[in-house]
Amino acid sequence: MTEKPMVRRTAAVTAALLTAAALLRSLFVGLEIDEEYALSLGFRLVSGDRLFETMWEPHQLSALTAAPLVALFLAVTGTTTGLLLFVRVVMLALKAALSFWFYRSLRGALGRPAAWIGALLLLAFTPKWFLGPDYVSQQFHYTLAAFLCWYGYYAPGPRQYRTPARVAAGAVCACLSFLAYPQSVAAAPVFLLGMVLLGRRGGEPRLGPVPRGALVFAGSCAVCGVAFLLWVLQGMDFDPGAFLQRVQLVLEDPQYDFTPAQRAQVLLSQTVTMLRFMAWPGLAAVVVTALSCLGGRPAPARLAERLLWVFVACLALRCTQYGLQDENLDFRHMYLAATVAGGVTFWLDRRCGEGRPARTLLFWLGWLPGVAAYLMILRSTLTSLPTTFMYLFWPALCSVAALALRRPAVRLLPLAVLGTLLLYLVACRLWLVQTVGWKPADITDTPLVQIENGPAKGIWADQKAADMQECLYEALQPYGGKQLLQAIGEQHGLGFLMADGTLKVAQASVISGTDSDPRFEEYYTLMPDKLPDVILYDDAEVRDMDAFHAWLEEHFAITDRYTVLHGTASLQVLVVDGWAE
């Protein structure tokens, strides 16, 4: 074996081992409220709650994926103890399968090194850093699965256009992505347009003027939509009027009560800070690009493209340094930069013959739908501008893949960009610990405690999170079979899964919120059978819940009240006996 292949193989194995170590650590370490929220939504569906009827969460449709995992674990074990670790293992296995599928599908077009690092990136990346199947994670992974299904159908080769079932399977995955995060439905018309153009240019069999793949996609989406609506309506006595009223009620969430102009103003104010953060990486990119041109200067357009990609690599290094130093996982500006650079690469290479089939697929079924979905999400989400860049990871990866198609002439640049992106993910996963409230801390100042009871058993978390899980277990173990209301601003989603999964959720929504939501009071008027048997208060409440607490104690008959303590956690338990007289 020559020296160069040996170095490449050593680098590939080292990257794989570091990625595996980072993911193994994520499997057992850290606990975050959004991951708890995802499992509590699935548990509601399993325990008998109905979408839109008794579940009023804005992300309730993501329960369709979490529910089968919860149901399977309950059926096999008869308890919820250890459920979170089981779900993480399943998700990690599925991520590994998708990553391997990506490598096998694109290694011929991208080359083995680029496809290998791209697969490791897919394995290491989760939008909110935890492995649990929350709505954002579902949107990303289902989108990836849909692309891989369609790539196998449209990519040139002996199987091209031969298995329409691949298109149908991809359409099902796309529909699950749309359900998990409805705003991402903006990608659907782009998918359809792309399939029409791909089919017409590639000589795909047609039905009339429309290529078969586009028809299968549209038909499969229609079937999925009708099946979903029928399933939801049968739980509401097939009353479309009642269904639409409940949808409107769910959409009237006070947390999302802002206009496009207000959202634009917030984003504009954050853009200035973002540009300041990018200044030093931009200067470094100019210097590196200038040095790279000493041996010969490319055309202006190609020079600008090179500058953009060097900037992506420099920005990834800056985000890595910032994340580790300031313990911040929200600064992922390099995904935005890579997406923009990718747009330039797709345009400049639009007539390039090398790698053209794969490039066209990456553009129409990857990059452009991802950008369309992001723009719709950007309008509706509450998160800050830097945090929204997690939705651009897939378009960013498609962008680097498009650059790698131009091999071997620019083999080093895409590998360098891919390497810096992987460095960011692995370094942050190994060094930082995710704590409650989406707040990371580093491993040197965060003592970890293993949770010994409840759904999170076996997970190592920070002291505060671990104490709360044990406190929830002790407070709720005596109330198996009862209906629980957490009158808490930052909900402890796994609390609903205590008592071996026998509790019932007795509230409109299990998402963290405030007492300013009048729908919580309306909920008990519309569904009196949902009155709680037990209410929890968190003595370390971080939001203003006084008005909601006052309403509960005025309208419910509180027969007992006591405090449960465990370490740093303190919960008040209120026992309820129906409406107050």
Number of contiguous helices: 22
Shape summary: globular
Mean pLDDT reading: 91
> What structural class is derived from the secondary structure elements?
alpha+beta
Strand order, sheet with most strands:
8-7-9-11-10
Helix content: 55-70%
Using only C-alpha atoms, the radius of gyration works out to 25 Å
Percentage of residues in DSSP E strands: 5-15%
Number of strands: 11
| Oligomer type | single chain
Q: Could you tell me how far the N terminus lies from the C terminus, measured between alpha carbons in angstroms?
A: 85 Å
Report low-confidence residues grouped into runs of 5 or more: none
How would a textbook summarize the main sheet?
5 strands, mixed
What is the element layout, followed by pairings?
Layout lengths: L2 H26 L4 H14 L16 H15 L5 H28 L1 H13 L10 H20 L9 H17 L7 H15 L3 E2 L2 E2 H23 L5 H12 L8 H18 L1 H14 L7 H27 L6 H16 L7 H25 L4 H4 L4 H12 L7 H20 E4 L3 E4 L5 E3 L9 E3 H14 L6 E4 L11 H4 L2 E2 L13 H8 L7 E5 L7 H10 E11 L2 E11 L2
Helix pairs in contact: 1-5, 1-18, 2-3, 4-5, 4-6, 5-18, 6-7, 6-15, 7-9, 8-9, 8-15, 12-13, 13-14, 13-18, 14-15, 14-17, 15-17, 17-18
Name a few traits of the molecule.
five-stranded mixed beta sheet; alpha+beta; single chain; globular
What does this structure look like?
It is a single chain. The chain is an alpha+beta fold and 581 residues long. It has 22 helices and eleven strands. It has helices at residues 3-28, 33-46, 63-77, 83-110, 112-124, 135-154, 164-180, 188-202, 212-234, 240-251, 260-277, 279-292, 300-326, 333-348, 356-380, 385-388, 393-404, 412-431, 463-476, 498-501, 519-526, 546-555; strands at 206-207, 210-211, 432-435, 439-442, 448-450, 460-462, 483-486, 504-505, 534-538, 556-566, 569-579. The strands form four sheets. Strands 8-7-9-11-10 form a five-stranded mixed beta sheet. The protein has a two-stranded antiparallel sheet with strand order 1-2. Strand 3 and strand 4 form a beta hairpin. Helix 5 runs parallel beside helix 18 (412-431).
